[in-house]
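agent> Task received from the user: take the single chain below, predict its 3D structure, and emit structure tokens. No templates, no multimer pairing.
agent> Plan: (1) validate residues, (2) run structure prediction, (3) serialize to tokens, (4) report one or two observations.
agent> Step 1 OK, no nonstandard residues flagged.
tool_call: predict_structure(input=
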Amino acid sequence: MFGWLKKRKDHQGANGRFRHGNDHLIELRQVFKIYETAAGPFKALKGVDLQIDYGEFVAVIGKSGSGKSTLINMLTGIDRPTSGEVLVGDTAVHTLNEGQIAVWRGRNVGVIFQFFQLLPTLTAIENVMLPMDFCDVYALSEREKRAMSLLEQVEMGQHAYKLPSALSGGEQQRVAIARAMANDPPILVADEPTGNLDSRTAGAVLELFERLVAQGKTILMVTHDRDLSKRAGRIITLADGEILEETTGDRRPETADTLKQTPSVPTSSFSSLESDILAEKSTQPSRTSAEDHHA
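)
tool_result: status=success, residues=295
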């Protein structure tokens, strides 16, 4: 077991620190990301420090090119920093190699994309089952039942056996959210999750996020929409690869308070894999692709 949830109440104390000395569930320490381009070095992130605790709903806003997607990529391990540390619970994400990151991410971070990224030849329920198959965290006999339960949570149970092409944009996004929760990760990361949705559907997606946070999930959402960002508990504004300011959103305090009274979310996504991963020495070279530097 990772033991993160056991530290939930006292992880900020000296006796409750995580393995690498971080007091918060998520910590980015002096993270720089520099891409080499034909025009010269491009600094996508410039010494970013960020802390996020359990049960927080944090929105990251900023103009195109401000570094929002690059920040998300650092947290999820999709890309790695040029320098600095990315700590999530007991894991130093920046030290893991490609294979280790894939396994860690599959079990601990649910990623929600702007363009849904559903496999077109699989039904909704098959798309939700896919992460379970990849990570092998549930018995074969349980996966379809769990996938259906997740689809019902996002009000998509009646569309479980439809292909993505038969679903609207809002419906596909709901399926994508269910898929992100497939392995019961403690963290959900959403990159422009409402970018292709109308305002009514976007509002419904934000309501779903609020319910998940009240159940104990930690959500980091990137968005261009300042009005939607106000639904979060904290708003971080990025500009030119730096945190410009942090402000408080409009999320009601009582929603956060209910977290204290809500039973801990299931811990099935946590396993002894953490010890195995951290016992190995990372040998994978850093990626230098600049494919996301414009984000």
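agent> Step 4: summary for the user.
The CA atoms of residues 96 and 275 lie 12 Å apart.
agent> Done.
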